[in-house]
Amino acid sequence: MSNRAFDHASKLEQDERESSWQAHHQMMEAQAATPSATRCAVCHDPIPQERREAYPGCQTCVHCQAELDDALNRHHY
Ligand SMILES: [Zn+2]
Question: Which pLDDT tens digit goes with each residue over 12-29?
Answer without folding.
Answer: 888 888 888 888 888 777
